[in-house]
Amino acid sequence: MADDSFPEFRDRCRGLHDAMRAGGVAIDPALHVPALSLEAAGRDAVRTLIARGAALDAIFAASDMIALGALRAVEEAGLRVPDDVAVIGFDDIPAAALTRPALTTVAQDYPRAGALLVDTLVRAIAGEETADHTLPARLLVRASA
After folding, report:
1. What's the CA gap between 96 and 106, in Å, rounded?
2. Please, are residues 31 and 48 in contact by the beta-carbon 8 Å criterion?
3. Beta-strand runs (E) in the chain
4. Residues 73, 99: contact at Cβ < 8 Å?
5. pTM attached to this predicted model
6. Which among 63, 46, 143 is positioned nearest to 99, based on CA atoms?
7. What is the per-residue pLDDT across 79-94, written as a single tens digit (0 to 9) for each?
8. Where are the beta strands (DSSP E) in 19-136?
9. What is the pLDDT of residue 134?
10. Rounded to an integer, what distance in angstroms lies between the CA atom of residue 45 and that of residue 32?
11. Which residues contact 121 (CB under 8 A, 6 or more apart)?
């Protein structure tokens, strides 16, 4: 679940789709519900999927905030996380480890990303050439998946 107004969400969605294709998993566009990076938006997106009758067994949210809302909506529907529906977020915000069940999430190297961002900005201001960077991320497996 991601909203196209956030470029990083598009990249995360593209990465998910690439991984699904590589694993031989079909991509069903009907299971994609755009959501802003807010807990309420994640809850509403999952409620929409459930109302459509979608057979959910896993949710990959473009942010942890969306995933936290998804957790609530899954539980409100009488489903169990992760037994019925696994939930994975992205960002590793502090609340991700504190929620019940603790949220499985994709973590980024924020200090390195910040340093690259500052370096790129300084180079751009100086009129120097800049480049895009893709940094590695890691999956933090917790209780939600």
Report:
1. 10
2. no
3. 58-60, 86-90, 104-108, 137-140
4. no
5. 0.85
6. 143
7. 999 999 999 999 999 9
8. 58-60, 86-90, 104-108
9. 85
10. 9
11. none
